[in-house]
Amino acid sequence: MTLMEMSVLYADSAAAIRARIVELREEEKVQTDAEAARQLRRRIGELAPLWREMRELSALTAKYYDRSYHKHEKYTI
Considering the entire predicted model, what is its pTM? Predict the structure, then answer.
């Protein structure tokens, strides 16, 4: 598997996570139980870093061999 192929998979994963976050936010808006709403917010908080990481990795793997791309410091050794 090439880095470009991996980039597409990361982007797909990011889109799926983002869609789930949107669903959870909608559920939270209509939730009448305070504890259930708190659990939904906690789950959204757990998914947010995963979403960000998938987006970052998608960009990194898509542009890895592009000389003009400044690599993300987080993933630089």
Answer: 0.84
Query: How many angstroms from the chain centroid is the CA of residue 29?
Result: 21
Which of 56, 51, 65 is CA-nearest to residue 3? Answer: 65
State both tokens at 41.
């917010």
In contact, 17 and 50? CB cutoff 8 Å? yes
Digit-coded pLDDT (tens) for 7-19 = 999 999 999 999 9
The residue type of 36 is A
pLDDT at 63: 83
Are residues 4 and 61 in contact, defined by beta-carbon separation less than 8 angstroms? yes
Helices (H), the chain: 3-30, 34-62
